[in-house]
Write a structure and sequence with these properties.
The longest helix has 21 residues. This protein has a seven-stranded mixed β-sheet. A five-stranded mixed β-sheet has the order 8-9-10-11-12, with no helix packed on it. The chain is built from four helices and twelve strands, in the order E-E-E-E-H-E-H-E-H-E-E-E-E-E-H-E. By secondary structure, the chain is α/β, with parallel strands linked by helices.
């Protein structure tokens, strides 16, 4: 008898929390999955990882609007997996940021990954009918992008290969807050379908070298 994925029976609603990490950073989580990061700068908001559907992204927006009315200017894709990116349209951002390697993976595997993940993760794709299609970055970078959110300096860094070839982290140097994407996961076995296992430990070492005071995993 064929066995279904355990995630297909993971249908119980999770408790949502929205925790302040520093003067400018928050973590949105539903008991660890899915997670999104929020940075509120002087002139706007950055969201790290968009949720799987626009419907689910509205839960993040609802929490953002409790702390600021500033426009959501940026959505950062930590990697290309559908569960992290397909809600991006709900934010109506000025820019969707991703590494060059992530853009290439969207081109190569985006459609297949979308179909696969919607089938495997029903809880994470509530409102899948609201997805307009693949999420395409409007701003790409190779190694590091520095975004000035007013006076607040935010670094988007392609730290190296690990969970995928395109993994990006978001780092607030002045506050030592790190958003790791799925390079680090919360109470979960890591997914290795796109992984570069030989490179992953060195990439994690680069994250550890930053010595973050707060870390938001994928």
């Amino acid at each position: 008898m064929a066995q279904s994925f355990a995630s297909q029976s993971d249908l119980k609603a999770k408790k949502i929390s929205f925790e302040r990490l520093s003067a400018n950073a928050w973590a949105f989580t539903a008991e660890g999955d899915p997670n999104s990061g929020v940075i509120v700068g002087d002139d706007g908001v950055m969201v790290i990882d968009a949720q799987a559907t626009p419907l689910m992204a509205r839960e993040v927006i609802k929490r953002i609007r409790k702390v600021t009315s500033k426009p959501i200017k940026y959505v950062v894709l930590s990697h290309y997996h559908a569960v992290r990116v397909l809600g991006a349209s709900a934010y109506k951002p000025q820019q969707i940021i991703a590494s060059e390697a992530t853009l290439e993976l969207i081109r190569e595997r985006g459609k297949q990954d979308m179909a696969s993940e919607i089938g495997r993760f029903p809880r994470l794709f509530r409102g899948k009918e609201s997805i307009p299609g693949l999420t395409w970055p409007t701003m790409v970078f190779r190694d590091r992008l520095v975004v000035m959110m007013g006076k607040l300096e935010v670094h988007v860094i392609h730290a190296g290969r690990g969970h995928t070839a395109g993994d990006s982290i978001v780092w607030i140097p002045s506050q030592k807050v790190l958003f790791s994407g799925d390079l680090v996961e919360y109470k979960a076995g890591i997914y290795t379908g796109d992984a570069h296992l030989g490179d992953w430990p060195a990439t994690l070492d680069r994250l550890a070298a930053l010595k973050p005071k707060a870390l938001v995993p994928g």
